[in-house]
Amino acid sequence: MDITVTTIPYEDRSILSNLIQLYRYDSSEFDDHVVNRHGLYPYKYLDHQWTDDYRRPFIVKVDGEIAGFVLLILDVPNEFTKLSSAEKTIVISDFFMMRKYRRKGIGKQVAFLLFQQFAGSFWEVKQTISNKPAYEFWNRIIREYTGSNYTEVVIQNESWNGPIFVFQS
């Protein structure tokens, strides 16, 4: 199985837009997203993936077929809430694998590839409090990757409601 994780060029914006619809639909049971009057899930940060220097959109392919996407925030700006005191902190803003590719170890390989690509960085991975499957996935992946050398903090305020894992790659 050939797994690739590459940056999405702006010319492929529509691919990310389409995948975000699947992602938002999938996660709507946990985060209460609703469709707009056009039957679409709005995502206000779509164009920001290419206009904000600190954002990076990645597409995941398995044997050449689109399997998902990852949206990263690199060098988290000061206006973002972050727990890490490190100067360079990366946040996994969104991580989506299509159902066909779940429970096959692909998500783990994608996460490990990104951790290795940005080796030495501090990471923060957040999940909403109600998304138990995401929590279990990230808890298992980060525990394995770090050898249990990570911090978990639960935030419950107006800016976030859920667990956040903090670790260094």
From TrEMBL:
Q: Which InterPro entries match?
A: Acyl_CoA_acyltransferase (IPR016181), GNAT_dom (IPR000182)
Q: Name one Pfam family in it.
A: Acetyltransf_1
Molecular function GO labels? acyltransferase activity, transferring groups other than amino-acyl groups
- Can you name this protein? Predicted acetyltransferase
Organism this protein belongs to: Oceanobacillus limi
Keywords attached to this Swiss-Prot or TrEMBL record, sorted alphabetically, are: Transferase
Coiled-coil-forming residues are: none
Matching SUPFAM superfamilies: Acyl-CoA N-acyltransferases (Nat)
Q: Where is the N-acetyltransferase domain?
A: 8-169
